[in-house]
Write a structure and sequence with these properties.
globular; 10 helices; Kinase-like_dom_sf; single chain; 331 residues; Transferase(Phosphotransferase), domain 1; alpha+beta; 3-stranded antiparallel sheet; Phosphorylase Kinase, domain 1; 2 domains
């Protein structure tokens, strides 16, 4: 006989058509992604004329497969709400997906309702374009990433998990940053070994002090986002992870050793000198010597690229206008 722990269906494994929220406002259509702590579904908002949304469903039950600390969930909601700028317009943070609502489904599932960023994650986008991007396209997307991360820092917190899988290249060609599950205040970031190993900066891996005790002092979390953004750029240009040992690609220990030592994989010969210099400055092991995002924005390789987002086509603008009118008349 199997134990209940192995046969129990996760509380956030929800079927198509499941209604969520007060009066069943939201309806699940299909699963988009499954992570360690949450399942994300595409859904519709019945109160807004059937407009599409993303439903991040977190199993908060005591016997969840991965127990999520309530404090972590509260942090994600706190920082995602802060990005809305108080009026829900998300003006000034065009590269970030908005949080629209928070509801519960019974006692075991907390649902974060986000606007739906239609597109593919940046890693899939890279693979769809032959495994790497040319410099012009990488520059365009990277400029948008830098703007989004800078906006987050300007609001007093860091992302701590910047990577292609947490960025959507939308149907309009623009990049949107998602997933604030590891976000933390810039002045309160103390926990190390946070994030995804391939993107962690050396200081995040330095968990113990000289006496073998766990470090508890604050670190420069903004510098950690600079590092992971540099890894993001390296992957766009090469299709490879900068610190992965080619002879041991699945060996996490080898990857982490290369990160600590600053052993960056060689770039292709056709990569420009300007972007080589930018990557060198971003992937500097010592955070005190690492370039800042403000300096990144002024780097010659990015000169003139910031603030340029693709404008939606006439058809897309008409669709958005129609959706808005339909939503407002149905309230």
């Amino acid at each position: 006989m199997r134990s209940s722990s192995t046969s129990r269906r996760a509380a956030n494994d929800l079927a198509r058509g499941t209604a969520l929220g007060t009066h069943g406002r939201y309806e699940i259509v299909e699963m988009i992604n499954r992570g360690g702590t949450a399942v994300v579904y595409r859904g519709i908002d019945r109160e807004k004329g059937g407009g599409e949304i993303a439903l991040k469903c977190i199993d908060v039950s005591s016997d969840a497969r991965v127990v999520v600390p309530l404090a972590a969930v509260k942090r994600e909601i706190k920082y995602a709400t802060r990005l809305m700028g108080g009026n829900g317009s998300n003006a000034g943070v065009p590269g970030v997906v908005r949080l629209l609502n928070v509801v519960n489904h019974g006692e075991d599932v907390l649902v974060l309702v986000f606007e739906l960023a239609k597109g593919v994650d940046a890693l899939d986008y890279i693979n769809q374009h032959g495994g790497r991007l040319d410099e012009d396209e990488a520059r365009r997307l990277f400029a948008q990433l830098v703007e989004a991360v800078r906006a987050i820092h300007d609001l007093g917190f860091c992302h701590r998990d910047v990577k292609p899988e947490n960025a959507i290249v939308c149907e309009d060609g623009n990049l949107r940053l998602i997933d604030f599950g590891l976000a933390k205040g810039l002045e309160s970031a103390k926990t190390r070994a946070v994030g995804t190993p391939d993107y962690m900066s050396p200081e995040l891996l330095d968990k113990l002090d000289r006496d073998g005790k766990v470090r508890t002092e604050k670190y420069d979390a903004a510098a950690c986002d600079v590092w992971s953004s540099g890894v993001f750029l390296f992957i766009m240009l090469t299709g490879r992870y900068p610190f992965q040992d080619p002879n041991r690609p699945n060996n996490v220990k080898a990857t982490l050793q290369n990160i600590v030592k600053g052993n960056v994989a060689p770039l292709r010969v056709d990569v420009s000198d300007d972007v080589r210099d930018l990557l060198r400055c971003m992937l500097t092991p010592d955070p005190r010597k690492r370039i800042t995002l403000k300096q990144v924005a002024k780097h010659p390789w990015l000169s003139g690229s910031l603030g340029r987002r693709k404008k939606p086509s006439l058809v897309d603008r008409l669709k958005q206008s129609f959706t808005f009118r339909r939503a407002t008349t149905s309230d």
